[in-house]
């Protein structure tokens, strides 16, 4: 199945985790890729992983800080200069931030998390939408979180930013559906990525984080962490023309935990 044959897919946060998983999936299905991350080493590792399974994959690597609008405009411009257009955009780059109760949550940390997770998503949409509107089609998937549809203790910045992503997704989807553009969000739960591993280490340290992880997934109806490739399958579908009438959706992918009281 080559749903992305001849299509250009732009992915932020492509140097690891969910971004890498989605890049691998759409590359297998024929996409030309523009891969964006602040971590150049991570981008090269993603490129190598893709080349193992798609020998002739066309890829552009761009180093960018998504919290800087000039960097965002640059990665959009470079993608268009290289490939001519943008058909799909996985607006994914983000951080969790430090964990603390709200009264002790650092104001600088709060601003940092919102700058990357919310402002970065806004800047990406702002500049990609101009390209998609001109061509009259496109699919955008923003990375929200179950923390964007319910509370997450000790993560004020993260929860606030991801709730903002949900609102921005729905608002923009209403505006741009008339131009043949769909805008949706995924809301992952506990997916075993480097970011989640780092979060567990904040709590349990280098020696105890795996035990913390076991306790963390115990309330989940499926009793396990999700896999990055499971995010890849869903996101690839939402970025494809097969999902052409799905718009303004926020899709949990968390094993059912967000629905369990």
UniProtKB/TrEMBL annotation:
InterPro entries: KR_dom, NAD(P)-bd_dom_sf, SDR_fam. The keyword Transmembrane helix does not apply. Pfam families: adh_short_C2. The keyword NAD applies. It comes from the Bacteria. One of its GO terms (molecular function) is oxidoreductase activity. Belongs to the short-chain dehydrogenases/reductases (SDR) family. This is 3-oxoacyl-[acyl-carrier protein] reductase. It comes from Halalkalibacter wakoensis JCM 9140. The lineage of its organism: Bacteria, Bacillati, Bacillota, Bacilli, Bacillales.
